[in-house]
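New to this. Explain the following:
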Amino acid sequence: MSIAFLLTTLVVVVTPGTGLVYTLAAALSRGRRASVAAAFGCTLAIVPHVLATVTGVAALLHASATAFQVLKYAGVAYLLYMAWATVREKGTIDVGQEGDAPPVTSGRVIVRAVLINLLNPKVTIFFLAFLPQFVSPAEPHAVPRMLALGGVFMLVTFVVFVAFGLLAASVRSHVVSRPRVMTWLRRTFAGSFLALGAKLALTAR
């Protein structure tokens, strides 16, 4: 494994995107446990993208305009839903116990995180362009090596997202009990989801 791969992976992971935005939103609204759940869900969603790259499905998405557009607009629709759901939450949050408010299970947080990353064809196309650069076509074990690199990418994603999430959760008590701050944060995250949805909608292959 090259230093170039690790550095590229780190740059890609820390670049703000839907997964990181959702992890931060979960951390500030529901605390440490939710932030870890969101990070896990975002990481878990990478598995289908890596498998798609290895099996050639990513090439089909790249070649088929219809398949790409269908998946893209499904992703746009879900980002719009996330923006609406974020704004829809009202009131302050009791920070006495992380699990008290609002009543959203870790499983639901994980499912939302998985869908956010899964319904984004840009991620699949990214892996189609990214992983082969670090694997020689003549290498006899190219597929296992690509899977291994995908696993490293997932590990880095999880560690970085958890770190950002825990950092955000550490200042949670200073912001979530203030109605005006919470309203501003919700609008900010909702606006981020809207912006990311618009960017995805305008993305060409």
About this structure: The radius of gyration is 18 Å. The chain has eleven helices and no strands. Residues 142-170 form the longest helix (29 residues).
